[in-house]
Amino acid sequence: MSRAVEESNRAMLRARDAMDRAYAQPLDIPALARIAYVSEAHFIRTFRATFGETPHRYLQRRRVERAMYLLVRTDEPVTEICHLVGFGSLGTFSRTFHGIVGESPSAYRRRKTVPAGVPGCFTKAWMRPSSTAGEPATEGEPATEGKRPAAAVSAPAPAAAR
Description:
Blueprint: H1 3-21, H2 29-36, H3 40-51, H4 55-73, H5 78-84, H6 90-101, H7 105-111, H8 120-127
Helix pairs in contact: 1-2, 2-3, 4-7
């Protein structure tokens, strides 16, 4: 890895860490680009190339992850959780949550329970929403709720068969 790529990755990690720390606060691209010491357009392109999703999508997913935790672990109303995780509108929160998780926040709360005796690190990994929700699973990737099973996706032909 070249020094320039390494420095670019560090800059993107600084911005992503800032997003993780302040996910519930209003964040904008100009501020994140300043943290990474790059222009706004370059920040968006480089972030996507580095992490596989846009900064906006990453922030939405991060907020939904936190909302998922709060829905299962607290008795706060959905509207309150919506505002606690940084969404300004219940409608936007519900639409985004449904798009990432595959069900409404209320349905998720009714269906999910806190697993007894399972370490928190495993629970977090299991409950983490995919950044590719709604897209088909790729070869070798486990199928998750809302995705077609990996066997349903046609695999590329072996090199000898081409």
